[in-house]
Amino acid sequence: MRRIVSRVAVAGLMLAGAGLVAAPSSAHGVSVPTLTGFASLPALTFVPGSDPSGAALGTTPVNGIAAPWDDQPVQGFSGVLPNTDGTYDVLSDNGYGNKANSADFLLRIQHIGPVTATGQVDVLGGINLTDPFKKVPFALTRADRVLTGSDFDVESIVRAKDNTLWLGDEFGPYLLHFDRAGRLLQAPIPLPGVFAPENPAGTPNLPGSKGFEGTAHSPDGRYLYPLLEGSVAGDTPGDLRFNEFDTRTAAFTGKRWTYRLDTASNAIGDAIPVDANRFLIIERDNNQGDAAALKRIYLADRRDRNHDGVMDKTLVVDLLNIANPRGLGGFGKTFRFPFVTIEDVALLSGDTIAVLNDNNFPGSAGRTPGVADNNEFITVRLPKSLNPDPRVLP
User: Fold this and answer.
1) Nearest Cα to 253, choosing from 263, 245, 241, 264?
2) Is the pTM of this model over 0.90?
3) Burial of 196 (0-12, 13-18, 19+ CB in 10 A)
4) CA 363 to chain centre
5) pLDDT digits over 296-321, tens only?
6) What sign results for the dihedral spanned by CA atoms 66, 69, 73, 76?
7) 3-class SS at 343?
8) Bond before 173 cis per omega within 30 degrees
9) Nearest to 240 by CA among 225, 221, 227, 222
């Protein structure tokens, strides 16, 4: 099946459920965040003229969609970089959930332009991730060294001052350093003493798919702060390691902080800087649709002002309780972002953020039961400014 889409309208399914929820609550008269923009990229959006994909998924339809496909799907956004012209570079996830079924999914950074005035998204192009300089020390899936979802599970992205790209991976977990054309510049950098099940270098002490889900950076760009999604064996369940990496020495410094989940069964979706000490972190439960109960963005402060040994957390946005006074997207006065995986947040200004979901194509159906989720893009205005360091803004 080939379907080429470069500019798409909001699908009618996104209107389901509009007006069926109560108005957002405002505790003690404090305003809740407000939806200011909405756009949607349909699940069935593909990279024109690309390689076939999905052969290992079988032909049984999932949420109404059957594999394989003649082209690569534009799906699974797991990291986002805002550009100064209103476009975004978004990192596609590793494919279809694991190494075994993602060998024909090409790792790619998509270039998109949401048009919130019309609810549309332009797919403007993108780059595949490759290893032409043979930096990866283990065997790759493809002889041409184009990287696939069986090689790495890339989940987070940082643009350095020199326009090179640092990506966080879950299979190592590794940090991966690419040039702006998507070519790997050095060997994958492992986190000392931590091994995912997919890493052959040591005994696994981290659950599968729980590696570097979010990667923040210092305002001056020198340090990276990759955040694990899961707890390392021996750590308190629900405590996540927030490590420091020095880009000048290309080594972890040994410094780390602890982000504590609300409950050990939760997961994080992304981590980005606000300033040298504060970070926006997405935390979520593992439910979707009406069952979704916790989809939040916290402001986490590594200074630990209450001296309890973990980063301080302040709720910034409840993604299930966003005011929508203009009824954007055809939804009611309360907008919910009820997806199982929400893995992208970008700080656009002191009081405005962008948030995107990972639709796990074609596996998630958080918006309408039985219908594969689209990739949704929203902008949210906060009740007050976060007063960020200007260097972290686009």
Assistant:
1) 245
2) yes
3) buried
4) 16
5) 999 999 999 999 999 999 999 999 99
6) positive
7) coil
8) yes
9) 227
